[in-house]
Amino acid sequence: MALNQDDVAKVAHLARLAIDSSNTQAYADDLTSILALVDQMQTVDTQQVDPMSHPLDATQRLRPDEVTEADQRNLLQQGAPAVEQGLFLVPKVIE
Amino acid sequence: MQWEAVIGLEVHVQLATQSKIFSGASTAFGAEPNSQACAVDLGLPGVLPVLNEKAVEMAVKFGLGVKAEIGRRSIFERKNYFYPDLPKGYQTTQMDAPIVGPGVVDIVLEDGAERSIRIHHAHLEEDAGKSLHEDFQGMTGIDLNRAGTPLLEIVSEPDMRSAKEAVAYLKSIHALVTYLGISDGNMAEGSMRCDANVSVRPKGQETLGTRCEIKNINSFRFIERAINHEIERQIELIEDGGRVVQETRLYDADLDETRSMRSKEEANDYRYFPCPDLLPVDLDDAYIDYLRSQMPELPEEKKARFVEELGLSVYDANVLASSRAMAEYFDRTREICGDAKQAANWVMGELTGRLNKEGLEIQQSPVAAEQLGGLIKRIIDNTINGKAAKQVFAALWDGEGHTADDIIEAKGLKQVTDTGAIERVIDEVMANNPAQVEQYRAAEPDKRGKMVGFFVGQVMKASKGTANPQMVNQLLKQKLEG
């Protein structure tokens, strides 16, 4: 599977990555060669192998349903550029 | 052309945990903005999610309630998109290996007909925060208290054929989650939210039409209106030679219309992948069997018991089992008065009528089940007649006494069943109305039945409603015949 410059631009937009348009062809070539390796791996017979979602051979630990976190709003909002009435303010988004 | 609608629902149920799905922050409703959003919920660098065991338990219970296969190994994935109310840039959710597999929900339509709707799957995920668009001089305010609240997303198969079926399905899900105690089911506070996938096709056609998704429908009333509106829109569009475009539409309750949410279309590429911060969740048979043993009586079982053991009609059983609160109220009333049919009539009649009139839920009823049961007991043992019972009920509602017995005593409503006392009242009424007595005696026997009503009314009035109506009837006829 080969990626073109449009694919690269789309993926960059989805991931909110600012890339220089003069580099998109280079990224397209790099990503295409990575996908070539994926294609090669796809040819391996994995019928007898369970799909792996996580590299660790362990399962999720669960925690009891208890409230352990106190209100730290003032501390946590110190890094926010704009705050009002306890709310984080962001540039207007509306559907 | 005859059209058929095809509807599938995605219902988001907020699980009634104390803390969030991946953090120890509180989920309580109505707190100060961002006072319940901890470092994990904010997605600050270096934090790790740890799964809440209660959320897992609740999801499994739902699965058992819809006879579904429980996922022995379920996996959390990241659904990536950018929106200010989602601080991590992804929602932790499930896709390929959800905790609840295919199941089935039975629904009851308004005419009493029953149908089964298949559940495709249900999965655990976290909620996002809330955006507030008013009052911030061109900025949007973000409250992340809700971010990380556990949700169970229940995805149906496209098995519904009308808005009414969709409402019935939503009601069944609502009854199930409240019976199980896994959600408060409060739609006004957003504890249950619904997206509907709607398409239309010519009746008889197998393949599905192009569907639209209607987002964020938050009441039983709106879901019916929103879906009906969308069905009409699609049919009109096709009949005018147009084509339905697959898109997301927002229902506006004020304007009663759906409109396109174009801005989300291009972002519909979520690049799911397994969340590296969360390991697979393994559930064994012992755990699932334990939860199965903890299951309460569910609506279907309750209905069956009401019909088979208590002899109620299927209609009555459906109404009474429709919510856990209603069923429990009825059960307590019935236990106290000892008569299921009378208890059913009072709960569904006088009580429900008054609750609807005042806009109250049964949990808020001023008359407790114990009080109503005590009242019905006095009807059954003939202490009061039906007319007096309504007065007692009204008095209980208004808090004029604690028990039916107190009110019967205070208001002198005890039914008079003493023959001599009733006869004295009848004599008095006949003496005061000689003309009517003469008329009665002169009338043809087949006309007299109607005429006796006048005397019954007078006697009941004179006894202030306390005379036993059957006895009044019988004694009056004897005396009038002379």
From TrEMBL, chain A:
UniProt cross-references to SUPFAM superfamilies, sorted A to Z: Glu-tRNAGln amidotransferase C subunit
Gene3D superfamilies reported in the protein's UniProt record: Glu-tRNAGln amidotransferase C subunit, N-terminal domain
Alphabetic keyword roster: ATP-binding, Ligase, Nucleotide-binding, Protein biosynthesis, Transferase
Span of the signal peptide: none
Entry keyword annotation includes tRNA processing: no
Pfam families registered for this protein in UniProt: GatC
Enzyme Commission number: 6.3.5.-
Catalytic activity, reaction form: L-aspartyl-tRNA(Asn) + L-glutamine + ATP + H2O = L-asparaginyl-tRNA(Asn) + L-glutamate + ADP + phosphate + 2 H(+); L-glutamyl-tRNA(Gln) + L-glutamine + ATP + H2O = L-glutaminyl-tRNA(Gln) + L-glutamate + ADP + phosphate + H(+)
Top-rank taxon, per record: Bacteria
First-level EC class: ligase
InterPro entries reported in the protein's UniProt record: Asp/Glu-ADT_sf_sub_c (IPR036113), GatC (IPR003837)
Any one GO molecular-function label of the UniProt entry: glutaminyl-tRNA synthase (glutamine-hydrolyzing) activity
Any one biological process term the GO annotation gives: glutaminyl-tRNAGln biosynthesis via transamidation
Family: Belongs to the GatC family.
Oligomer and partners: Heterotrimer of A, B and C subunits.
Biological function: Allows the formation of correctly charged Asn-tRNA(Asn) or Gln-tRNA(Gln) through the transamidation of misacylated Asp-tRNA(Asn) or Glu-tRNA(Gln) in organisms which lack either or both of asparaginyl-tRNA or glutaminyl-tRNA synthetases. The reaction takes place in the presence of glutamine and ATP through an activated phospho-Asp-tRNA(Asn) or phospho-Glu-tRNA(Gln).
HAMAP family: GatC
Stated name of the protein: Aspartyl/glutamyl-tRNA(Asn/Gln) amidotransferase subunit C
Organism for this UniProt entry: Terasakiispira papahanaumokuakeensis
Gene: gatC
UniProtKB/TrEMBL annotation, chain B:
Organism from which the protein derives: Terasakiispira papahanaumokuakeensis
Listed EC numbers: 6.3.5.-
Keywords annotated in UniProt: ATP-binding, Ligase, Nucleotide-binding, Protein biosynthesis, Transferase
Catalytic activity field: L-aspartyl-tRNA(Asn) + L-glutamine + ATP + H2O = L-asparaginyl-tRNA(Asn) + L-glutamate + ADP + phosphate + 2 H(+); L-glutamyl-tRNA(Gln) + L-glutamine + ATP + H2O = L-glutaminyl-tRNA(Gln) + L-glutamate + ADP + phosphate + H(+)
Enzyme class per UniProt: ligase
Lineage, highest ranks first: Bacteria, Pseudomonadati, Pseudomonadota, Gammaproteobacteria, Oceanospirillales
UniProt family annotation: Belongs to the GatB/GatE family. GatB subfamily.
Any Pfam family matching the protein: GatB_N
Name used for this protein in its record: Aspartyl/glutamyl-tRNA(Asn/Gln) amidotransferase subunit B
UniProt GO molecular function: asparaginyl-tRNA synthase (glutamine-hydrolyzing) activity; ATP binding; glutaminyl-tRNA synthase (glutamine-hydrolyzing) activity; transferase activity
Superkingdom of the source species: Bacteria
Alphabetical GO biological process terms: glutaminyl-tRNAGln biosynthesis via transamidation; translation
Domain Asn/Gln amidotransferase, first and last residues per copy: 328-480
Quaternary state and interactors: Heterotrimer of A, B and C subunits.
Function: Allows the formation of correctly charged Asn-tRNA(Asn) or Gln-tRNA(Gln) through the transamidation of misacylated Asp-tRNA(Asn) or Glu-tRNA(Gln) in organisms which lack either or both of asparaginyl-tRNA or glutaminyl-tRNA synthetases. The reaction takes place in the presence of glutamine and ATP through an activated phospho-Asp-tRNA(Asn) or phospho-Glu-tRNA(Gln).
